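Consider this one:
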Amino acid sequence: MNPSNHNTGWRTEKSSNSLNEVFSSVNIPKDGSFKKKLLAYMGPGLLVAVGYMDPGNWATDIAGGAQFGYTLLSVILISNLFAILLQHLSVKLGVVAERDLAQACKDHFHPAVNFVLWIFCEIAIAACDLAEVIGSAIALNLLFGIPLSVGVVITIVDVFLILFLQAKGFRYIESIVGGLIFIIFIAFFYEIFLSKPDIFPLLEGLIPKKEIITNPSMLYIAIGILGATVMPHNLYLHSSIVQTRNYPRTTEGKKEALKFASIDSSLSLMLAFVINAAILIIAAATFHTSGNKDVADINDAYMLLTPLLGTTLASIFFGIALLASGQNSTLTGTLAGQIVMEGFLNIRLKPWVRRLITRTIAIIPALVISIIYGEKGTAELLVFSQVILSMQLSFAVVPLVMFTNSKAKMGEFANKMWLKILAFVISAIIIVLNLYLLKETFFPQ
């Protein structure tokens, strides 16, 4: 057992993780400046932020902006603040306990409970992969006219992309992800420039309003935004990849690692907030103000951008951003899948086998729906994938909060009382809102 964990409440020795064994070569300068150390720690936060701007977020952001203008900007901001806190707890678990969330669950819970948690997590990862498949297929259809069913099949090619990148090392993956995020950011910056949003109503939208709760339609989309923003598999992913940094596994070393890794996470998630907010702002400025309030999916948004903004470049940039978003999320979904399977079951599969299984599970429903129902069916399937993610979220958040609250497991790094209360409140809000979302989805009045 790791000497630094000899007095903790963990029952068993930490099992190894193949990702951390392969990607443990990112060294931290011992006597470097604040800037050099921060740059060394930067990277995992970007990979996590990708999950907060995947194609599944687009539908809820577009619908929210088109129907209610800038009002739901406050929901995106609050969701992002929730995410920053939860990802900080994920970082803390990984740095202090040197376990990812899946390993921590395996160590603490009964095998039967772990099996259920694993099943739920695999379903969530498959649902996330489903959103990426549909998003990429829609982007290929919009940009190149490729039929949706063919686009769905083409997405299986990313299996080979994953293998190539994993062979290059973790810094290479982080660089590719950072580059794709930059493309998404530039695309939406251009779209906002064209749409010319009203600044004062936009700023006012950042302040929560009572009607978000009292208006059932607005509340439903608000919960959808929350469910699409806070991704359960990111909590597993972050607690693992933060360990790829070669920091000293001492108390002081962990304190420093926790500080810099949390800065990396918070800055990256604020970038995700800007991109998500940009999608809603564009929808509000372009569709809501022009009376096109019934725009609720990616296809409608793409088709209307050119006539409303007066240039075909608007739609092209939109499609490119969507394609980049889908491919980015594919990378992190694959890594999360490996972490979850190894952490819960200690089963190691070759990366291409793991990737092929996950992608096949996602491709089958996407292919069937695209062939039978076309664009409308895939749009509805995209929204449904976010409902599935919402169902799993509580099963990841509750163990994470429980572990990081524990003095026995975390020692002096256990959450302070104010953080315990805040984490409990956020967990309760997430659970209640997601229960409401499930009720409205499956038992509408």
Notes: The radius of gyration is 21 Å. DSSP finds 21 helices and two strands in the chain. The domain at 3-442 is CATH 1.20.1740.10 (Amino acid/polyamine transporter I).
